[in-house]
C-alpha cells in the first residue's frame, strides 16, 4: 500500500525556519572602506599608486629672527656670549667663501665658512660699554701724577711688551706668545762715564743711539713669565757689572784704552796751551765743545770726508781764522 509523504514534514522545524530565512531574507553585505582596510592589489597601476600614496605635509618654518627684531633691539640679549655663527639671528648681509672669478660670494645661509671661523659679535661697543659700567664698582681710580707719558716714563721707566694670539688650533698656546721684550732709556740708569762705556760694550747692538733706548728680547724659555724673569735678570746683571771696577782697569794707560777720550789725552793739554798763549796767567780759555766732539769722532770713527770737514771747520772757528 503506497502513501504519499510530504518532504517538508521530515525536516525539523528549526531547519525549516533556517531555510526559510535564507530563502526569504537575503543577508546584508557589509561594505569595506579603503581607509579601514587596504586591499592587496598585485597589479598596481599609476592611478592606484597615486591614490594610495600619502603626501607629506611640509613643516611650518618660522621666518628668520632678524626679520622680527625691532630697530632698537638689545643685541646683548640676542647674542650674549661667544657662539657659532647663526644666519637667522644676525641682521647683516654677511658673505664668506672663495668663488671663481666674476661669481657672487655665497651668502650667510648654509655657509660653513662663516660657522668655522670665530666671531666677536658678542663684543659690540654697546655691550662692552655696558660691561664696563657693571665693572666700575670693582675698579680703583687712576693714580694721580701719571696723567702724561712723561710722568709715566719717569716713575715706571721699564717698558714690558708681550703679545697674545687668538687662533683656531687644538691648543691655546702659541709659540710666539712666550717672547718678551723689555725697553729702557739708558739715561734712566744714572751711570757715570766708566759705567756707561762698559754697559754699552756689554749690551752690544741692543742699544739705539738715536733714541737712547735699550731693547732686550728673550725667547729661550717655554713660558712668558720665565722669559720676563730672565730679561729682568739680564738687565740687573748688566747694571751691576758695568758699575764694577776691576783692579786692572785702574792701571790702564792711554794706549790701552778701547776708545779715544779727549780729556785723558795730550790733545787737551796742547790745545789749551795754544789758546792761552800770550794771555795773562789769570785768564784761561778752554777749547769749545764742538772742537772736542770733532776730535773724538775723528779718532773713534776713523777718517772720512765728513769727519775731516767738521774737524776743519771747528779748528778754523776756534782759532778765529774764518
Describe the structure.
- It is built from 12 helices and 4 strands.
- It is mainly alpha-helical and 322 residues long.
- Among the domains are: 50 residues, no CATH class; 96 residues, Double Stranded RNA Binding Domain, CATH 3.30.160.20; 60 residues, no CATH class.
- The protein has a 4-stranded antiparallel sheet.
- The longest helix is centred in the last third of the chain and has 19 residues.
Chain-wise SSE layout:
Blueprint: H1 13-24, H2 46-52, H3 75-78, H4 112-116, H5 125-135, H6 149-155, E1 159-161, E2 180-185, H7 193-203, E3 207-208, E4 213-218, H8 224-242, H9 247-250, H10 266-275, H11 289-301, H12 305-319
Antiparallel strand pairs: 1-2, 2-4, 3-4
Helix pairs in contact: 7-8, 11-12
GO cellular component, one term: mitochondrial small ribosomal subunit
Region (Disordered): 44-64
Protein name: Small ribosomal subunit protein mS35 mitochondrial conserved domain-containing protein
* Weakly predicted, low-confidence segments: 1-7, 10-30
- Provide the spatial order of strands within the biggest beta sheet: 1-2-4-3
CATH topology of the domain at 150-245: Double Stranded RNA Binding Domain
**Hey, roughly how much beta strand do the residues contain?**
5-15%
The beta-strand count equals: 4
Measured on Cα atoms, how large is the radius of gyration? 51 Å
Question: What would a concise description of this structure say?
Answer:
The chain has about 325 residues and is mainly α. It has helices at about 15-25, 45-50, 75-80, 110-115, 125-135, 150-155, 195-205, 225-240, 245-250, 265-275, 290-300, 305-320, and strands spanning about 160, 180-185, 205-210, 215-220. The relative contact order is 0.04.
